[in-house]
């Protein structure tokens, strides 16, 4: 990853490893202590890229939040990173258990380039659906169908209409709603690798984990499974500022997604190939596409990937309602990624895939 991202691109990307020190008795603000832990814990070949933090540092930055675990507040360390290194306009966050079978720099660059060219018209409505090859000739056809369905009036346009009751939206002023070119050429402040789902009424375990926003349960919010994203410096600073001043927070998978929705920032779900290890009822492309559509889309039309017991979400009452996700190449738990990665590293050719999670090489 370091070779493909930093060396092959002549420094267009820089790789940093954020190391979570679990021992909170260590004062990492003391230079000698920091140096000692850094030398003892980080292999020499990675020391130039490693930055240490622990809960003490997070608490110092965000005393009003009260939650500092990686599961719920993974972006706090990234927010501090962005403040410390303001020269980076955008930051990709990749988890340690992700593997990519294609060239990493090319895949991330393509994602950013593609997101930049997406218009904002009905973008949140497209973001709420999986793009399924076999149902559409290409993404342009998919986008045209969504535009025809929602027209010029129904889709979210700029900040969510209720955002003003929770904060002061900082996104750009929207043009007239029929403008189909708004957003084309605009960098995405947030890129996700799965749809942006409205978690309300899904019965997701963290559906109602909302702190500091009042009334909490009416908060407009979105989430995207697996906290691997590209976030902008502006977005990270807006989150950081709000958490410092009010202590408001939602869980990691919902943090940049919700702030983007509230501020009216451009957020884009970038489709990528996901392999499912199950035998379809019909092997034709169109029939298997329809089967996936039925499996993946159970929500209301403006949030098709969501809805009650959305298949990829862990719900308190039923657990995982769609077991076929356990055979997916991109998921938050188990899945088929380890098998695909093992075969790929042993010589099997495959498409460029983002594999997650892979716990062992």
TrEMBL record:
<dbReference type="InterPro" id="IPR021822">
    <property type="entry name" value="DUF3405"/>
</dbReference>
<protein>
    <submittedName>
        <fullName>Uncharacterized protein</fullName>
    </submittedName>
</protein>
<dbReference type="Pfam" id="PF11885">
    <property type="entry name" value="DUF3405"/>
</dbReference>
């Amino acid at each position: 990853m370091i070779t493909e991202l930093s060396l092959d691109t002549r420094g267009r990307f820089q790789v940093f490893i954020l190391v979570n020190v679990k021992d909170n008795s260590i004062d990492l603000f003391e230079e000698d202590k920091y140096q000692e832990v850094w030398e003892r814990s980080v292999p020499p070949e990675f020391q130039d890229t490693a930055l240490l933090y622990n809960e003490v540092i997070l608490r110092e930055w965000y005393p009003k939040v009260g939650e500092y675990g990686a599961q719920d507040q993974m972006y706090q360390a990234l927010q501090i990173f962005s403040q410390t290194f303001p020269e980076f306009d955008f930051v990709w966050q990749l988890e340690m258990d992700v593997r990519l079978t294609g060239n990493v720099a090319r895949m991330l660059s393509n994602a950013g380039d593609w997101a930049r060219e997406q218009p904002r018209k009905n973008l949140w409505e497209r973001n709420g659906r999986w793009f399924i090859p076999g149902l559409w000739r290409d993404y342009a056809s998919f986008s045209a169908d969504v535009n025809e369905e929602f027209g010029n009036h129904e889709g979210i346009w700029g900040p969510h209409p209720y955002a003003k009751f929770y904060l002061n939206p900082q996104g750009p002023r929207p043009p007239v709603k029929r403008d189909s070119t708004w957003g084309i050429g605009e960098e995405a402040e947030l890129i996700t690798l799965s749809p942006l789902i409205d978690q309300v009424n899904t019965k997701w375990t963290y559906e109602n984990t909302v702190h500091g926003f009042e009334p909490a349960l009416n908060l407009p919010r979105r989430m995207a499974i697996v906290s691997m994203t590209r976030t902008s410096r502006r977005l990270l600073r807006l989150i950081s500022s709000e958490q410092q001043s009010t202590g408001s927070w939602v869980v990691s998978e919902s943090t940049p997604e919700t702030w983007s929705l509230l501020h009216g920032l451009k957020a884009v779900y970038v489709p990528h190939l996901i392999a499912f290890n199950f035998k379809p009822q019909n092997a034709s492309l169109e029939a298997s596409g329809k089967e996936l559509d039925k499996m993946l889309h159970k929500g209301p039309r403006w949030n098709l990937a969501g809805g009650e017991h959305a298949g990829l979400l862990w719900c308190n009452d039923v657990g995982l309602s769609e077991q076929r996700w356990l055979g997916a190449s991109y998921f938050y738990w188990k899945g088929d990624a380890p098998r695909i990665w093992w075969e790929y590293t042993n010589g099997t050719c495959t498409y460029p895939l983002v594999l997650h999670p892979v716990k062992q090489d």
